[in-house]
Amino acid sequence: MSRTGRWIPVAWVISAMRDANQKPTGLVAVGRDLTERRQFETQLIRSEKLAALGVLAGGIAHEVRNPLAVVSSAAQLLLEGRLDSATRRVCEEKIHQNVQRASGVIENLLRFARQSDRGERLLLDLAAVARDAADRIANQFKLSRVELALEFPSCAVPIRGTSGLLQQPVMNLLLNAANSMPETGGRVTLRVSVHPPHAVLQVVDTGCGIPTADLPKVFDPFFTTMPVGKGTGLGLSICYSITKQHGGGIDIASEPDQETVVTVRLPLDTGPGSGEVSP
């Protein structure tokens, strides 16, 4: 502690002093003031946060500006007032679609940022959560001519979590897999299994794969390989965030033109009452 009462971080290296018979006769202690190092680390963390904030702000601006530009153009045409009924209808639809798109970007961003919205952690069956999520988007798979296969164990897979939150990453992963398919369709497998101490959920697709250079960036907010207007780049970021909130992890194995395997691992609940999961 300094004379002003400020704590000073110090790294100590202590060595023993020995006589000719190797008996300890004392200690030598060398202290190094870590104040400058700590200040440098703080500045580095601040710089990294500012850089991340800049990337996030740029992504938000890009994703919101594009639909706003469409809305502005359509509104200007409507204000001119010299449109036939068909063109007016097209402009109105464009405004509605792009307002919905901007609203979707903001909603996804709120989901990504809402770290404290955890809700009550109940005892759940991961297989049931995954099945409910798959049922919600089954029609979208049919329209895309993509086969969805479910592989679940016969017994419950108990975990602790919030059902509504956990369904979100499952749906995001399934939709990402479906969107990676060619126009001729393909196959997506949703698999739940138990590998103690983890409950494991996997989404395997026969799509186009992910370039090796893109794999380290897939969980970054607003990173997407989808065409403009087809995705916000927040889906996998939301998956990562929700999985981490539940004490789990997520990783992706993929190569171009090969199948992609996304694996989510969550802590398996083996405590009292684990056989009585919530529906």
From TrEMBL:
Nucleotide-binding listed as a keyword: yes
Catalytic activity: ATP + protein L-histidine = ADP + protein N-phospho-L-histidine
InterPro entries assigned to the protein according to its UniProt record, in alphabetical order: HATPase_C_sf, HATPase_dom, His_kinase_dom, HisK_dim/P_dom, HisK_dim/P_sf, PAS, PAS-assoc_C, PAS-like_dom_sf
Domain Histidine kinase, residue spans: 59-270
SUPFAM superfamilies reported for this sequence: ATPase domain of HSP90 chaperone/DNA topoisomerase II/histidine kinase, Homodimeric domain of signal transducing histidine kinase, PYP-like sensor domain (PAS domain)
Domain PAC span(s) in chain numbering: 1-46
MF terms (GO), sorted A to Z: ATP binding; phosphorelay sensor kinase activity
Keywords, sorted A to Z: ATP-binding, Kinase, Nucleotide-binding, Phosphoprotein, Transferase, Two-component regulatory system
Superkingdom of origin organism: Bacteria
EC class of the enzyme, as a word: transferase
Enzyme nomenclature, EC number: 2.7.13.3
NCBIfam families documented for this protein: sensory_box (TIGR00229)
Name of the featured protein: histidine kinase
Organism (species): Frigoriglobus tundricola
